[in-house]
Write a structure and sequence with these properties.
- By secondary structure, the chain is an all-alpha fold.
- It is built from 17 helices and no strands.
- 79% of the residues lie in helices and 0% in strands.
- Helix 3 packs across helix 4 and helix 3 packs across helix 9.
- It starts with 11 loop residues before the first helix and ends with a helix.
- The structure holds tryptophan.
- The site of tryptophan has 16 residues, from helix 1, helix 2, helix 10 and helix 14.
- Tryptophan binds next to helix 1, helix 2, helix 10 and helix 14.
């Protein structure tokens, strides 16, 4: 594939499906519940949703806009749109760094998901009670060998899809997957809510206790919003560069943000009632989902089928996200370093797998990559992206891009205010306050 023969998406649903495929993943079903649990529940959820609306959505739209305007990956995009302002190119560099870090621990968690898929298929968890399931997860996670093998398998699959190219690789899988995953999560939520003792879980998730809010908690909410929407590092800009002019960018950003938030909240409804019903600690960390959901499957009719379907779909959801992360690195290698697509993919996948090994071997490495990418690199990228569209591209370019499909640009005045002032100031404040500097 050459740089000027850029692959395009065939239709509107293809673009939205691919962007939603990137956004919806382990971030919604694994990270959202565990971070919400660690940060006190309801108040965190409220702040998170506020950030999605006020910052996440505008930044996502900005990324789509930058990508489509420049017709390039994010690094090349800034170079083309603002050649005299090298500061913005740091978005591209931070983006590549963030993609490396995120994929490293993402592959580990995706590996856990694959192990649980295997266990679901062989019906290996059905006899266990809640305590046994928790112990089982911890033993598996510390066994190292299993998790390491899965990291390799997951990265291999991701690389195989990326080598296939954008259109064939991504669009095909996402269209069928999204609705199916949604249906399973809804069924799980219904089951979970009807468990004895579910009430406490719903209260935890939906009754805000504002005394739980602190600078760190608010920063975690911001980081989770960025992570879940796949924004702040150019993934969405790369997709934007593949979107045709006739598509409505605002509609795309709204649809993707809405679908992503809906799935996260539903995952919360599926998990927290069960957490309380089975006496699990909501702040037990990254293992929360893996320790909780098997209990729900064990207590439901047809649990075997549902558990297999759920974990298979979750692996696929993880793949459509990891593909988008690897794509950023590959696009950069191909377009800036002039590598072939295949070579770029292999080099990137192998080096990320090595980082993944560190994440398996050390909890500290895992936590460092997880925390730094979401709470540091993505919000920093978000500031630059907002400032770029608000101040450098400016009103006219923004409007041109938002109306390129032939429709009106709604809320463009408000959007400009958010991008110029509100988002950069809010992100900076949350950031400094969360780090204890303000
Ligand atoms: N948003 C994805 C998820 O929720 C993860 C992801 C994919 C991502 N691409 C990203 C996160 C880019 C940040 C940036 O699972």
């Amino acid at each position: 594939m050459t740089t000027n023969a850029r692959d395009g998406f065939t239709n509107k649903f293809g673009v939205i499906a691919a962007a939603a495929g990137s956004a919806v993943g382990l971030g919604n079903i694994w990270r959202f519940p565990y971070v919400t649990g660690e940060n006190g529940g309801g108040a965190f959820l409220l702040v998170y949703l506020l950030f999605i609306l006020l910052i996440g959505l505008p930044v996502m739209l900005s990324e789509l806009l930058i990508g489509r305007r420049a017709q390039k990956n994010v690094f090349g995009a800034f170079k083309a749109l603002a050649p005299d302002k090298p500061i913005f190119m740091s978005v591209g560099i931070m983006g590549v760094a963030a993609a490396f870090m995120i994929l490293a621990f993402y592959a580990v968690v995706a590996g856990w998901t694959m192990e649980y898929t295997y266990l679901a298929i062989i019906d290996g968890l059905s006899g266990m009670n809640s305590t046994e399931l928790s112990v089982f997860f911890q033993e598996f996670q510390t066994s190292k060998i299993g998790p390491l093998v899965w990291v390799g398998i997951f990265m291999f699959l991701t690389a195989a899809i990326v080598i296939g190219g954008v259109k064939n690789g991504i669009e095909k899988y996402t269209k069928i997957l999204m609705p199916l995953l949604l249906v399973i999560i809804i069924i799980l939520s219904i089951k979970s809510v009807s468990l004895e003792g579910a009430q406490a879980g719903l209260a935890f998730l939906f009754k805000p206790d504002f005394s739980k809010l602190s600078g760190e908690v608010i920063l975690e909410a911001l980081g989770q919003a960025f992570f879940s929407l796949s924004i702040g590092m150019g993934v969405i800009a790369t997709y934007g560069s593949y979107i045709q002019k006739k598509e409505n960018l605002m509609l795309t950003a709204v649809s993707v943000s809405f679908a992503d938030s809906l799935i996260a909240v539903l995952a919360g409804v599926a998990i927290f009632p069960a957490v309380f019903a089975f006496g699990i600690d909501p702040s037990s960390g990254p293992g929360l989902v893996f320790e909780t959901l098997p209990n729900v499957f064990n207590s439901m009719q047809g649990g075997y089928i549902f558990s297999v379907a759920f974990f298979v779909l979750l692996v696929i959801a993880a793949l459509t996200s990891s593909v988008s992360l690897l794509e950023v690195v590959v696009a950069y290698f191909v377009e800036e370093l002039k590598m072939t697509r295949k070579k770029a993919t292999v080099i990137a996948a192998v080096s990320i797998s090595v980082l993944g090994v560190f994440c398996v071997l050390s909890d500290d490495a895992f936590k460092f990559f997880d925390w730094t990418s979401s709470n540091l690199l993505l919000p920093l990228g978000g500031i630059l992206i907002a400032v770029f569209v608000g101040w450098i591209l400016g009103r006219q370019n923004m409007k041109d891009e938002l109306t390129a499909h032939g429709g009106k640009a709604y809320f463009s005045g408000l959007l400009l205010i958010i991008l110029k002032f509100i988002a950069p100031i809010a992100i900076s404040a949350v950031f400094l306050h969360g780090l204890g500097l303000l």
